[in-house]
Amino acid sequence: MTLSDRVAVVTGAGQGIGRATALALAKAGARVVSVDIDAAAAQATAKAAGEGSIAIAADVGDLGAIDTMVRAVIDAAGRIDILVNNAGVTRRADIMDLTEADWDRIFRVNGKGVFFCLQRVAREMIPRRSGTIVNIASIAGKGYAGTSNAIYAASKGAVISLTKIAALQLAPHNINVNAICPGSTATALSEANLKERARTEGVSIEEMARRRNATIPLGRPNDPEDIAALAVFLAGPGARNVTGQSWNVDGGLILD
């Protein structure tokens, strides 16, 4: 599979799934734009992605920053062929401990950021009648009981619904929109949640990891590269007739 001559934008590319996806897209031949609120992290990913890669610092919860980011990509690369909407935030909390501040923070990035990045990039794709958008959702959005919190689950459910409607409304413009729903994935964010669970339940981190893995039918959490591999497929010619779908990568945690 090759993505040669494609320009790909990956948000939240500074670490975890975003970084793995940026590197996988670059390996497949794409010119990658690594976007992250952390400028140094974005630069590190762009450097690892190789020659031609670009780093942009942007807060995807800010519409002005999204517009500036897209304009910078167009100025530097001329177009956007692929968007991977990956930036996201959460924290582990019981439903009764969540606050208005949690709602505003999580939906600002996971909901507002995903929608307005999709919309702004689609404005560039529509005149060219070509484009692929991959939203990183979560099995939390499908009701996975092990979610970090209820607000996070709601935000990812919103991403899944957005993916379906966006796919239908952008299909006449030859733009594909799909979502990937990771399960337990070994990232800095998930490991922080694992440590918090271990602390709350009074067990070692190793024991909490054992318990987590025991619930996964394949017996192992995702590596970020597992998500990246599907993103590359969905961005490529082999998925030209795939749109509006939400793909689980979770070792069999949920069957939906």
In words, what does this structure look like?
The protein is 47% helix and 14% strand. With 256 residues, the protein is α/β, with parallel strands linked by helices. Strands 3-2-1-4-5-6-7 form a seven-stranded parallel sheet, sandwiched between helices. The chain is globular.
Topology of this protein?
Elements: E1 7-11, H1 16-27, E2 31-36, H2 39-49, E3 54-57, H3 63-77, E4 82-85, H4 100-125, E5 131-136, H5 150-170, E6 175-182, H6 188-201, H7 205-214, H8 224-235, E7 246-249
Parallel strand pairs: 1-2, 1-4, 2-3, 4-5, 5-6, 6-7
Helix pairs in contact: 1-2, 1-8, 3-4, 4-5, 6-7
Beta strand count:
7
Please summarize the sheet with the most strands: 7 strands, parallel
Note the overall shape: globular
Instruction: Give the overall pLDDT as a whole number.
Output: 96
* Low-pLDDT residue spans: none
> What is the N-to-C order of secondary-structure elements (H for helix, E for strand)?
EHEHEHEHEHEHHHE
Write a concise keyword list for the protein shown above.
256 residues; alpha/beta; 47% helix
Overview in brief:
By secondary structure, the chain is α/β, with parallel strands linked by helices.
